[in-house]
């Protein structure tokens, strides 16, 4: 436990940007405190060792849960819940140690309380897909197995008591309990260390694929995803449409109010565009003020409707900047992808449609007819 705690602290010290790592380090620090209390229990009054041990175990599980939520980007729990749960666990342990001694019930409450924290941690982490995030699922599995064992642990002691009547149940099957705890917590700890690598790899991939200003895909990543969407459309014989959008007179905004204001306008536009799209739609920034959107499984009428809805929304929602509201308009080109064409060719045709919309007076949607052989026909 001391080794894992030390390594976690060292990793957190140099990677403080990784969400949840600080909480996980504190969790294992509580686990280290618990082991120290166990080593000193013969030198401490029973009620002191029980309260310290139960408090450390409760905090360890709760901080593990908070670390999982932070890593997954989930909102913070109201700390009153965690504090109340730990106070109840410690209070019940104190009552069942000092007032009405009952090791069996005390052990049951302690085990099930800790189990809840680890099972909730497993539930939080088991998201995103096994293939994409295998380490995350490994940690979730370790936490789940540990949680289930904690649920069953009181029954194991009861079994030991039944098989060896008259023998102190604390001594009946201690090796199994200690071994499981060591293995599970070490697995979870080293899984957390592997999660730091997963997070760093994901962050680097995001830097390579995402536009840093608007948080949509950059041109290279967008074209890769468009190629994949074209392949999928060919296999399923479904339609695929591409939109190219350009913000009208954007250079004038930059020249008049500066690039910071222009950046705010771009982010405002992306937020509006995202509200018009489905989960399966893909948006990318091609460069400057030009964006593109892939609409899988959308027919011509549906693609035109999305483009018109986006155009109308942008025109009706000014960007709120430090210089006041700035009214925007966009020109949108729409085209359907052909069976054998490349992503660059489809994008070029949608780009031509966008420029035709500008020629027609801007703040327009123009549909460019695709070649005869189109995907889905």
Walk me through this protein's architecture.
This protein has 377 residues and is α+β, with helices and mostly antiparallel strands. The chain has 2 domains: 2-209, no CATH class; 219-368, Reverse transcriptase/Diguanylate cyclase domain (Alpha-Beta Plaits, 2-Layer Sandwich), CATH 3.30.70. It contains 12 helices and 7 strands. It has helices spanning 2-14, 21-39, 46-71, 79-99, 103-125, 134-163, 174-209, 219-236, 250-257, 259-274, 300-316, 343-359, and strands at 240-247, 282-287, 290-296, 319-321, 324-326, 330-336, 365-368. Strands 2-3-1-6-7 form a 5-stranded mixed β-sheet. A two-stranded antiparallel ribbon has the order 4-5. A hairpin with a 2-residue loop joins strand 4 and strand 5 (324-326). It is elongated, with a radius of gyration of 29 Å. The termini are far apart.
Keywords, please?
alpha+beta, about 375 residues, 12 helices, 5-stranded mixed beta sheet, Alpha-Beta Plaits, two-stranded antiparallel ribbon, 2 domains, single chain
Question: What's the structural blueprint in terms of helices and strands?
Answer:
Blueprint: H1 2-14, H2 21-39, H3 46-71, H4 79-99, H5 103-125, H6 134-163, H7 174-209, H8 219-236, E1 240-247, H9 250-257, H10 259-274, E2 282-287, E3 290-296, H11 300-316, E4 319-321, E5 324-326, E6 330-336, H12 343-359, E7 365-368
Parallel strand pairs: 6-7
Antiparallel strand pairs: 1-3, 1-6, 2-3, 4-5
